[in-house]
Each structure stands twice: as structure tokens, then as C-alpha cells.
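Quick note —
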Amino acid sequence: MICWINPFTGLAGDMLLGALLDAGAPLEQVRASIAATGLTGWELDAVWVRSHGLTATSARVRVTDRATERRAAELIELAAAAHPEPVAALGVAALTAIARAEGRLPDADPAEVHLHELGGHDALVDIIGVAAALHALDVTELVCAPLPLGTGRVRSAHGVLPCPAPATMELLAGAAVTGTDLPGETVTPTGAALLRAAGARFGPLPPMTPVATGYGVGTRILTDRPNVVAVTLGRPLSSSEAGPKVEDVLTLEANLDDVTGETLAHTMARALAEGALDEAAGLAALADAVAGAGFGTRPLVVDAFASGRPNHERNPARGGR
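Predicted structure written out below.
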């Protein structure tokens, strides 16, 4: 299953969890994966809310734990106990990514980094919850539209920091982002880490057959729009449904003057052997060039796949020159 994320106003762990629950992830299965970590003193509920005419799901986590700081090793150890194994692996990867981004020291052990912003159990619930929901929905490919980043300042345990927060920007290295008119934090470290850990790629809605869409709402209330992230689940299209594949083709063109037919024949033979397209067109160009030898400059044009794919693997539905 493909999951396409549309971060309409941004992305946070609880928003993504709410969207996946709204799209059909079974709440009890998600709870069971979290419970397997051994974490105590938490509750997770999915509540429908209406914002600016849109109905979305709010993933609400309540915890009795009041810790504001923990070593990453503690949370990683809990995440490693989650069930099934793919859920644990994604949770550990996301927490490790956050620890590395928070540490930002070449020789620092990520396990020893103190997570000031993610000390509470609610962060672990969000991360394992998202991992469990993706697994329950059989998501094998995660695609995300460019993430909208707000500006301004954000308060942290270290004081006032520029927004986006440094840890978030560290986690978003290589991601597709764009500016937004919304001030403040629109993408959290948890949201960014989940995308990185899940190997998400960035781009528009991929070719697929949609089967479900879900909306997850954040805690921030906006005056002019719903604060939501949307997910669309879909099945990959078959090769026949996807239509002919179009590929880029490069054109190599040279002007010929005072060249022997033998040299031209050798040139075309080598070009075709190296993957040039259209033997018939190439031979026609060769014949025209030979016929015009001695009567002014003639062009010789050779086409080849931009990807460098060999000629014998060419697609008859390729793109134009």
C-alpha cells in the first residue's frame, strides 16, 4: 500500500497518528503495539473533531508521567520492545534520529543524549503509534508533499531558538520543504524523524488507486483554516493502468564536412553499439550524409536514453528528442 502525506499546515507525530487512524488503522492494534513496550501510565484515544467545516481525528494521549527530560537510551529501550518487530525497528530508528539531531556532536553517543523536548511518554506513544498504524495498514511506500515551514521563534529547554528549530532542520536534511505564511513551528522533530526513519520520499501524489483518505488534526487552533495533515492510501497501478513509460532522450548532433563514407559507417556502428536509438533513422542519416559528402556541411544526429540504458532494452513508448 502507498501512503501519500499532504502536510496541509505542517506535520507532527500526533497529527500523523490521527490521520492514519482516520484512514482506517485499528486503534486497538495500535494500542497493543504501544503496550508491548512496557510503558505504563498512558491512554490513547481517537476523537473526531470539526474544524472549519472539516471533520478530522485527534489522537489524544494522556499520561501520568511528568518527566520533561530523559536519556535517549531509555526511550530507545522501550521502543525496541514494541511488537511486531517492524514497528519496533521504525520506532528505534526515529528516536535514534532525534537523538543524533539533538546532540549534533560528532563524537556524542546518541543513546546518552538528554531529550529535553521529548522526555514525556507521549512522544513514545506518538512514535510507536504511527509505526504500528503504518504496519497495520500494510504501507510499503511513504510519499510526502513538500513540508511547509513556518518562521519566527520557538521556545525550548535551551531558551528561544529560531524557527524552524535547529534539530528539526537537521532531521529535514535532504527533504523537500517550502515556506508558508503560518508563523511558528509547523513541523516538529517527531514528525520529521518519522519521515526520515520510514524512508519517505518527497513528491506529488504518485500514480495509484486511492482506497482511503484520513485527516489528523493538531492541537494548535488556526483562525482561517483547519490545522490538519491528510493521508491518502492507495494501491499501486499495474503496468497497463500506469500507461506507457516516457523517458528522456538526449540528442548528440554534429556537422559533417569532408568526411569519408568509411568513417561515417564506423561512427554509426560505434554509436549503435553504445546504445544509440533508431537504427533505421541512424542509417538514413548516414546515407544522407554520405550522399552529401563534398557538397557542403550536413548534420549527423544520434539519439540515446538520458539514463544510459542500453539500446536493446529500449522502450518503444519513449519520449521525443
